[in-house]
Amino acid sequence: MLDRSSLLDHGTLPLSTETPVVLSSEPSLESTHAVPEHHTKTLAAVVALLSTLDHCDTAAEASQNAVDHIQDYLSANRVMLLWRSRSGGTIAKLGDTERTSAKEIEPFIIAAGEEIAARDMQTRFPPTNSMDRHALLAVAQLVRNLPAKHLNAIRLSDHLDRDRGTLIVLESSETQCETFLNVVSRPLASAIHRIVRLQPSVVEQGVRNIHAFTKQRSRIGMLAVAVLFSALMLIPATYRVAATVELQPVERRFIAVPVDGPLLRVHVRPGDLVEPRGLLAEIDPREIDFELAGSQAQLSRAEQERKAMIAEHDFAGSQIAVLEQERLRNQTQLLEHQRGNLEIRSPINGIIISGDHTRSEGMPMTRGETLFEIAPLGEMMAEIAIPESEIAEVQSGMECTFHLHAYPNRTLRGTIERINPRAELRDHENVFIAEVRVKDPDGLYRPGMRGQAKIESNSHPLGWNLFHRAYYSLARVIGW
After folding, report:
1. What's the whole-model pTM score?
2. Are residues 337 and 410 in the same domain?
3. Where is the CusB-like beta-barrel domain (predicted)?
4. Is the domain of 423 the same as that of 383?
5. Rounded distance, CA 406 to CA 447, Å?
6. Same domain (yes/no): 43, 171
């Protein structure tokens, strides 16, 4: 069913299968005939698309028909439909007008699809609006590797606004491509989701296949298959634990305010590279200069008072004046030391990962207040979030491989150095954090980058690797 709100947002009439809707604001005669022409064309194309999907039996067939239809209507070079089989699952390509796609391009397509879905807005590359330039790294990599000049894409959401996938259009010559995508996204997602729900599950399909097989084969054949399957399930295989990974600095250096005083000037922002002894910020010296001048004046006064007391043979008073003079001298030295450390400099070579004080210039700062956080370059710490249900299969020293969403074509490898003994709550899941050092000689990786990891665990029978989760779940349900 078409989304009325998307049509109204673009000035089009809503499509309804129940009653027609008439919008009247008494327009001019010219607009009365000119405006509906394009909208009628768009609605007709969407209706034709949905009617073709009604005759499809599988989601793959429906997706392929949809991209072919959209390619013809938008005069596009290529159209791809990526679908998410379950909520929170990985997105996968379900329909593509280019039947033979290079395998090395697939990771870029998946990464771009995830990025477009995360943006939750229509994506255009290259962007025409300066406010629409965020989160386009994977999209830019996809356009560069295809290659292509223009890309339009939108997230596919069903009637409950749940993320179902992504629709990507390359090199469309239709001027109303963005309007068409906004109109077609929700009904297309709902139609494909309806077909997916009507398809038989894996268990149902397996039961059907087994039933058909038993009709054609004898009991001896079934026994042979069972024996072969059992033998196959007993073959030892390495168990791989799937987990999410996030990059963090190996160490963190926090730069604090050395003395009380107003912030005079800030020279860096988050993301800037800094060198050892590089200037980060400056504290206004005027307050300390005033205190230093006053302390020096008091020191001179104490010196004169001491001399006067000695001249008057007031030896007790002169000793007190000496002590006061020593106190003022120490105070002056402290102020001079503070005056010489008003320039805040970086202690290491690294990158600023937090601390944006460009709008705080002139504001009073308190001694010990954190200004910046610096992470060293050249090496990162990969934090692998191991699910609580898999922690028994993971130990320190195990090998692991992982891919970052920002660099899907790079395979990173490492060895688990340690596993935190205490569980943490991340993304509403109880996990244990394993640490793996990752070399970064080119300085490409940034704190906070995420990806997927596979940990090479112990060897188990293939049947255990495939079905142990289901077995334990069943055991908990029946109370074993």
Report:
1. 0.42
2. no
3. 383-458
4. yes
5. 12
6. yes
Residue 70 tokens read as 């959209």
109 phi and psi angles, rounded to 5 deg? -65, -45
CA distance 228 to 27: 75
Burial 40-75 (b: 16+ CB within 10 A, else e): eebbebbeebbeebeebeebbebbbbbbbbbbebbe
Residue 266 falls inside a structural domain: no
Beta strands in 236-356 (DSSP E): 236-249, 253-256, 261-266, 273-274, 279-283, 343-345, 350-354
Torsion (CA) 32, 34, 36, 39 in degrees, nearest 10? -160
* In a shared domain, residues 44 and 79: yes
Regarding whether 221 and 92 lie in a shared domain, the answer is: no
Question: Nearest to residue 282, comparing CAs of 293, 266, 270?
Answer: 266
Last-in-domain residue among 189, 213, 232: 232
Domain boundary among 178, 198, 218: 198
- The amino acid at 77: N
Q: Note whether 324 and 411 are same-domain residues.
A: no
Type and span of the H or E element at 133: none
Separation between Cα atoms, residue 155 and residue 160, nearest integer Å: 13
Q: Which of 123-127, 262-266, 360-364, 402-406 has the highest mean pLDDT?
A: 402-406
Q: What is the mean pLDDT of residues 309-325?
A: 75
**Short-list 468, 449, 8, CA closest to 241:** 468
CA dihedral 207, 210, 214, 218 (to 10 degrees): -150
DSSP, res 248: E
CA distances, 262 to each of 333, 338, 357 (Å)? 21, 14, 12
Same domain, 59 and 129: yes
Residues 116-157 pLDDT 10s: 998 878 888 888 777 777 778 899 999 998 888 889 999 998
Residues 324, 414, single domain; the answer is no
Q: Would you say residue 111 has pLDDT above 60?
A: yes
Domain count, the chain: 4
| One-letter amino acid of 25 | S
| pLDDT in the model for residue 134 | 73
Rounded (10°) angle between helices 29-53 and 177-198 = 30
Q: List the one residue out of 24, 65, 64, 17 whose CA is nearest residue 43.
A: 17
Read off the pLDDT of residues 61-76 as tens digits, 9 standing for 90 and up. 999 999 999 999 998 9
- Residue 108 near residue 141 (C-beta atoms within 8 A): yes
Cα 87 from chain centroid (whole Å): 17
